[in-house]
Amino acid sequence: MKKIFLLLFLTSIFLSCSQDRKHVIVERPIGWQLKETPTDASLRGLSVLTNNIIWASGSKGTWLRSLDGGETWDFGIVAGLDSVDFRDIIAFDASTAVVMSSGQPAVIYKTVDGGKTWDLKYKGPENAFLDGITFVGDKGYAIGDEVDGKWMVLLSKDQGEHWKWLETSPAAPAGAGSFAASGSSILADQDNIWFVGAGLHSAIYHSSDGGTQWTKTALPFPDLKESAGVFSIFKVSDKKIVGVGGDFLQADANEHAFVFSDDGGSNWSVQDSQTLSGYRSGVVYYPFQHWLIAVGPNGTDFSKDVGQNWEKLSDEGFHAVKLCKSFKNVWASGSGGKIARLEF
Predict the structure, then answer these.
(1) What pLDDT, on the 0 to 100 scale, is given for residue 5?
(2) What burial class does residue 326 get, using C-beta atoms within 10 Å of its C-beta: 0-12 exposed, 13-18 middle, 19+ buried?
(3) How confident is the model at residue 274 (pLDDT cuts 50, 70, 90)?
(4) d(CA 197, CA 203)
(5) pLDDT at position 23, please?
């Protein structure tokens, strides 16, 4: 009798786990479900931890946090800096997050009490301009424009408590910079770091040893403009990395809007046919449905084949798009306090 009971119990667990593993393949997303927020700030910083915990940051020194999937929001101004644009945010849990201001001043602040107080953790030189931050566990990297002939590659080993400008940061042409449009011009995976040089100095920089040594790969653009380049990169797999961009002064132009690498970032190709519907400032890969989602001011595009072909999904414009840490959903943020969840 005990053996029969045990067999039935194990069978029920197996069937339950099998059901949990199933997921329905959806042909295409439905669109965006907009969430009401208590601000009209331009929100370029976005960090999604779970289905319920979402953090955002933006202009006017704004930060936001939701603990119920975007139904209600806590919000405020970081350390009273109402004239500062916090263009990126990384959250660790419901209480802890770091935010980055691009410039004037270029600073990084941290909260450990859900946004009630924010403490200064880094302040760059007077002429510094930060573009984005990323974390792998407790280790974080930030990228900033050229200062004194070098890129600003910042390192933190303790969840953003302390930061240092790496002496091994790669050399940079005078005036070189990255685009701080969505905080996603830098990405990291284990000891690998990639970041994008934009405009007239468009290139991909890569370090495989945590920032000690760097390689530079020029992007294959036939013509370069200060307002154009790659704005956002995302690692799809060990070999596949994708990037989106274009010209932010021409929202409807899609020339050089999608680039990709099939060898881990050593070589890059530009796709100008079957491409995006315009300039795009953010991209993510949603693994459950194998979709690429790209956002920009004139709408959203998605791809079912990792960028070989694109379809216009929505005319709703956004600055940033981020994948939930649990990979279960995709969120976007934009001008006018706009935050939305992808529906499918």
Answers:
(1) 38
(2) exposed
(3) confident
(4) 5
(5) 58
d(CA 63, CA 335): 14
Whole-number Å distance between alpha carbons of 183 and 312: 23
Residue 297, preceding peptide bond in cis (omega within 30° of 0): no
Question: Which residues on adjacent β-strands are paired with residue 228?
Answer: 247
Query: What number of other Cβ atoms are within 10 A of residue 17's Cβ?
Result: 9
The residues, any chain, with a CB within 8 Å of residue 283's CB and separated by 6 or more, are 184, 232, 233, 234, 242, 243, 244, 292, 293, 294, 295, 321
SS3 call for 238: coil
Torsion over CA: 148, 150, 151, 157 (sign): negative
Q: What is the mean pLDDT of residues 63-69?
A: 98
CB-based contact 144:131 (threshold 8 Å): yes
> What pLDDT shows up at residue 103?
93
Reported pTM: 0.92
Residue of higher predicted confidence among 313 and 2 = 313
Three-state SS across 150-193? EEEEEEECCCCCCCEECCCCCECCCCCCCCCCCCCCEEEECCEE
Residues 299, 304, 305, 311: what is their CA dihedral angle, to the nearest 10 degrees? -40
Residues in the chain, overall count? 344
